[in-house]
Amino acid sequence: MKLYNYFRSSASFRVRIALHLKGLPYEYIAVHLAKGEHKLPAYSAVAADNLVPNLVVDNQHLSQSLAIMEFLDETHPSPALLPPDALGRARVRALAQSIACEIHPINNLRVLKYLSSTLGLSEDQKNTWYRHWVREGLESFERQLAQGPQSTFCYGDAPGLADCCLVPQIFNAKRFEANLEGLPLTMAAFDACMKLEAFQKAQPSACPDAE
Ligand SMILES: N[C@@H](CCC(=O)N[C@@H](CS)C(=O)NCC(=O)O)C(=O)O
Question: How far apart are CA 161 and CA 184, in angstroms?
Fold first, then answer.
């Protein structure tokens, strides 16, 4: 498998965690987002959406981190990223989507660039936008964890799909100095994940293109 990705990309980081949790080897192909490499025609030939991550398996190109992680889970079921019961799976997918569909899309690179370059927001205003939406999203995430069963990770006693999404979002929030106070369940799950080798190996500083 080949993973087109970028060390700082949180959607890429999700997939790297899933690959490491499952012990699956992959070729790391760096796409430098800050230099705009994802917009070059050569990369359009790899990823029709011009985004990272993109996983190549048997010459098939897979996009969207949630879809990729579920593909990995279906093709390599152990250890599972989703619980065995339908209710549990719905809860874990909801947590994962709270990050991947609610928080991340309004704070990713192209949105932040649009705020600065096209709408002329200052660095401070852009960071205020980022911190506001991340904080609001994580408060909602915390309330959802509080409604679920008592757990070491986001759901249960093993890391899963929601943890693969949470950890990169927290890394990103820390980089932008978002307020992470008063989120005890969220940060406990984050801390539990970061004790594991798979999360350590997948983190930005461990990537070959880390700067
Ligand atoms: N929903 C997509 C998001 C993909 C995405 O937005 N990736 C970012 C990096 S985290 C990207 O390629 N950004 C390029 C840009 O915004 O120009 C997924 O989960 O894979």
Answer: 20
